[in-house]
Amino acid sequence: MTRFRDALRSGSTAIGPFDRFDNAAERTHVAGQVPPQPRNFPEGPWNRLSNSDRFALFSAQEAVEQAGISTPLDDRAGVFFGSSTGGLFETELYFEALLRCPASRPPRALLASHSLSSPAETVARRLGARGPVETVSSACASGGLAIEQALRALRTGEVDLAIAGGADCLCRTTYSGFNSLRAVDERPCRPFRVDRAGMSLGEGGAALVLESVEHARSRKAVALAEILGAGSSCDANHMTAPHAEGVWAASAIERALEDSGIDPDEVDLVNAHGTGTLLNDDAEHAALLRVFGERTRCIPLEVTKAVVGHLLGAAGVIEAVATVLSLLSKEVHSAPGGGEIRYAEFAGLALEGTRRMPDMRTAVSASFGFGGANAAVVLRRWEES
Amino acid sequence: MGARVVITGLGVVAGAAAGSHRLADVLRGSTMPASEVDRSAGYHLPESARLAVLTADLDLSPWIPPGAGRRMSPPSRLGVAAARMAVDDAGLTGAVDGPRTTVVMASAFSAVDFTERLLRAVFLEGPETVSPFMFTESVANAAAAQIAIANQARGPNLTIVQKEAGILTAIGRGAAEVAADRADYALAGGVEEMPPLLHALLDRFGALARPGSPGGEVARPFDRFRSGSVASEGAVVLLLEDEQRARSRGAVIRARVRGFGSAFDPSASRVGWGSDHVALGQALGRMLARAGLAPRDVGRIVSGASGSLAGDRLEARTLRQAWDGSRLPPIVAPKGVTGEYGGGFLGAAVLAASNGEAGPAGGFCEPDPELGVRPHEGGPLGPATRTLVTSLASGGAASWLLLESV
Known about the structure:
The complex is a heterodimer.
Chain A: H1 2-10, E1 16-17, E2 30-31, H2 51-67, E3 77-82, H3 88-100, H4 118-127, E4 133-136, H5 142-155, E5 161-168, H6 172-180, E6 204-211, H7 213-218, E7 225-234, H8 247-260, E8 269-271, H9 278-292, E9 301-302, H10 305-308, H11 315-329, E10 331-332, E11 355-356, E12 362-368, E13 373-381
Parallel strand pairs in A: 3-4, 3-5, 8-9, 8-12
Antiparallel strand pairs in A: 1-2, 5-6, 7-13, 10-11, 12-13
Helix pairs in contact in A: 2-4, 5-11, 8-9
Chain B: E1 5-14, E2 17-18, H1 20-29, E3 35-36, E4 51-53, H2 66-70, H3 74-89, E5 101-106, H4 112-125, H5 132-136, H6 142-151, E6 157-160, H7 166-179, E7 185-192, H8 196-204, E8 231-232, E9 234-242, H9 243-248, E10 255-264, H10 277-290, E11 300-302, H11 309-323, E12 331-332, H12 335-338, H13 344-355, E13 357-358, E14 379-380, E15 386-392, E16 397-404
Parallel strand pairs in B: 4-8, 5-6, 5-7, 11-12, 11-15
Antiparallel strand pairs in B: 1-2, 1-9, 1-10, 3-4, 7-9, 10-16, 13-14, 15-16
Helix pairs in contact in B: 1-13, 3-6, 10-11
């Protein structure tokens, strides 16, 4: 998390040439690839896991350790993860071998983590969680929806502790797929800029440990932030194109604010979905205007995808983590990529370096995905008083 | 749960049948309507399983116009058709649009056929030949999204992936949205396709019944000679709504959703079932207790047992653990007829809960002394009561749903 925070502050991007797979024949050649494992990376089970499972386990383990929670967890702990690729990278290796020789027997281990549920199950298995384990796979809104599911489970008393996370990997299916839609920028993405030309894919994992205030206090935990509420909706409009006027994206944010019991006027920061595609950015601009009106001009905006790329099913969670870090440091992180801002109301985009916001208290993190799935989470800086 | 949630619509494309009445016929017949899987791609090993319960011959045109169907992946087509049936069954045709209808669908494997075709293009012809349509319909939430589009359902739209346990979780979460008054209606269920590649891969993992086993390639839930499941494809969608709303509009109530619970068994490997029946049995007991009930209050069980060696063993031990030595109620094992995946067993559970009917466990011949469970042999299940629906998944997840006759 320290490195992630530094990256957000640095004004640089992790998006660039990558070698996760041979992309020479692709239309574009940049992505936000997780660096190879450092030499001191723990030995043991890690190397037998798929990339997504590793990202999931690494982030969940870090979150649990930071929260000061000992493992194994118990039947009052649940795992709620978003994923849209699962072990697809390894499945592709298996399938390519099968395709070259259908009667061959490629290593079955490559398929063992194929399921989209594998990251959540890996986390639960390794950390000993025995409560509900659920994977949400609603495209790029998965992470935000996973947080919402975790929040609901906590509120109803189904669990005392929830690990809300997301993990996805770079793979040929999504890289070629998004390129087939001409939705990928040849350069690192530049959300909300005049010359934006698409998204940049990324990969990775992120996790939050969620618990009730009472539960956290009972074990003398140091809270990082409070989740006030969450909300979701569906465009029911088109498989890929967002509703042009952002009506239902706005509805998800409004539901989240209503669930939080706060007014739009109380929002100090928006961590936007901000993919950098022409249609998505236009729709999100329209949605934010619907929710915040003229006040949109005054609300700082951050776009984490410009730093790490689009983590698809994990995007909503890593962006929630970025939002928590912003609330903790009272800083809006930078939006690398340069260029003129497309929308007059988005002057609050922190373009170069971080911006101090001493009074920052409440933030919205929004996620919108294929199939019109929309999700939003409202976070507040934790104040013990 | 808060407000009482009831099932007023049932849409079924499962057990090689379109419509809940047809599924009821298939269940009564107790013969699995399996057919040969196309093995021409060469993915199947020589000694592999050959059969699956498929939907290719079903005419879905009454529920989904052919033109619209051509613009969808197989799971989307199945899901949209089943959702349309559920809405019609509930008497709500054209009336579930808007932000107060939520969609929660589950799938274990998503759109495998389209993903295969996409990857074939990538590997054999180059990534520039990938079809955007193949990609957008290959995502896991395509079916849920198409259901929303077809019904203009603009409430929360969720796709749950938790292997065999996902479908009951989808019902539980859909019911929770209604119970908490975040939705008036929930379209909740599960969908699966079974293309040759997926069938071949399930077989390579030893999940499917062996052609060379005693009696041949048959799913035999709880049977001594079971050797695996028979894969199936299909979709089942339930329309859930608040009971008061349903009664006020004069809807026919099929059953009440009385409870839902889920748990995880960390002893499970990535592709196998776990062994901690004690913890799972306790979790099941807690689920019943949250509903204010005890095991003795359950009148029948519709089990997710599929004929899997380890899965059925864990299921039987978990149930016996939860009942703690007491006599188990009648156990219906519909996957011997509907096959594994595609939601057929959920359709069977709703039918059992609503009319008390259940067919015999297809394929069952001889009890397994190790399990101590003998499935229901068919015929009426007795007076109105509570139905526990179970689904344990490979990989460790488990979910349970409690339905109540109304």
